[in-house]
Amino acid sequence: MAGSATAPLAVAVTKAGGLGQIGSANDLQALDGHLTSAAKDLQRTSEDLLPIGVGFLLFLADVEEAMGVIGRHRPAVIWLFAAKEVGDYATWAARVRRVSPGSMVWVQVGSVKDALRVGKEAEPDVLVVQGADAGGHGLARSAGLVTVLPEVRDALVEAGLGGVMVVGSGGVTDGRGVAAALSLGADGVVMGTRFLAASETNLHPNWKAEVVSTSDGGQKTVKSMLFDELKGPSIWPEGYDGRGLANASSGDFDRGIGIDEVRKLFAEASQEKDGGFGQDGKGRAAMWAGTGVGLVKKEQTAAEIVEEVRAGAQKALEDARARL
Amino acid sequence: MAGSATAPLAVAVTKAGGLGQIGSANDLQALDGHLTSAAKDLQRTSEDLLPIGVGFLLFLADVEEAMGVIGRHRPAVIWLFAAKEVGDYATWAARVRRVSPGSMVWVQVGSVKDALRVGKEAEPDVLVVQGADAGGHGLARSAGLVTVLPEVRDALVEAGLGGVMVVGSGGVTDGRGVAAALSLGADGVVMGTRFLAASETNLHPNWKAEVVSTSDGGQKTVKSMLFDELKGPSIWPEGYDGRGLANASSGDFDRGIGIDEVRKLFAEASQEKDGGFGQDGKGRAAMWAGTGVGLVKKEQTAAEIVEEVRAGAQKALEDARARL
Q: Where are the alpha helices (DSSP H) in B100-235?
């Protein structure tokens, strides 16, 4: 949620008893400002860790600059994702631990193989295991949480890495999803798509409206490399794609219209008043969203979401027990 | 699991306290034999329903012949899937109810839209909601259980169809998956991939061995239309594909080798001693399996599986409660 999950959302989630996170920050000067603002809002005293997380896309971020910001602000969580080489996570993890002792290192993975390698080499505090239902970027070849979560958990235990915590990501949209992830062996969850429609999220109003109005998330989103190709060749490392709302760009591409024409139509739409964020599936800009989008029915404050999800998880486990 | 889930597996699952099912039967004479054999094994008295289910692929099955077999044997469950037109489910459901009163009608769907339409028109007892992790055939555009299950459940309730039971399918491989599905709002689950390695399943031994040895299910399976194209153009209705173990055929196709060449290599491999069921990903025949294949670690009897899954579900819910 780069650019949309900024300080106001992160602070609101943390205040509500969750752990707010700032989406992958490539503009490190902007991140610095967000963290200063978050520290003030959270009335932080200088010795404490800042009780929010910050995400970094490793293939994009400058490690030196990143360490500067991390050392200055000491966020509670540093969430690493999308390294060009799996080995890069270990390098980053070691440096984070030096510049900000106490910060937890989270690494996001999407396969058992990567989980084992990262678990051994980077010794993260947390592996964020991402399933195929996630919005935005993830492994093109992937599985849903229902299988990848328990398989990663078992593999870690078998490899003597059972102490690494596992956080489920991808499709968790309400309390039922939380209960499911915990049942599958997760120690916790992260949620993105649900917060797309949070009042504190910085998103084009049409994108937010589209998230609220879209039903049937598996049918109305597409997992594709196309959305990264709209502005020109994708800058993402091999093996990744991204899930977003199906729209005029993806529809044209699926119908066999060439990428050059799809790019041209996108560029034209970007000049329109709505910036290409047309509604009812008619937009041409990428609007990242997971399959959980069909479960997001209204705009709510982050506090309302956190409270509703917590209560819902409790109820879902009770209901499940009653059904068993 | 057409051809592999036959009477011995169905009987064993039912005897263990589950509800055994015979995979989609297009050879109705063979099905007649299987049902006669199952009735004998289950010491059925003539008035009772036969306590197993039978699947039908509606685009393939002859409705007249199917009704003859259903009326003669009265299986407890008739599971309908893959109609050419969504409207066909209502026709079949009504006829099943006439020829075998008391049999439950299950209809398998993969989207909220289809769930609502089938729920209204066919009035099934059960909607089998299939997620993208399933092995074998399903909707090409799909979502994992973590989102499609709760979204279908909510949509049914909102449409006044809350009385329709929902059974989760796709990725449920052990007790944790069962607990997750129940948490997501399912009344029950069906499991396919886990039973591929059951002793009673009629599967090429190499396929069974491959299921047991494969790890990282999301990486080592592919959801593709290719497997239906190996013997010639697919006979499946539009919108479906199938998930199977990644192998030499899918690898070649992904590398851009044309379908004619892939078919030729498959045809040649089929003449080999192993019938194209090569191991370690080197086979060329379709070996259907879901992403849960990485959780299947040994061959077990159906009774062992049912018992282990039941106990595991209980434990998973307790563990989840402790973590919340």
A: 112-121, 145-158, 175-183, 193-196, 205-213, 217-220
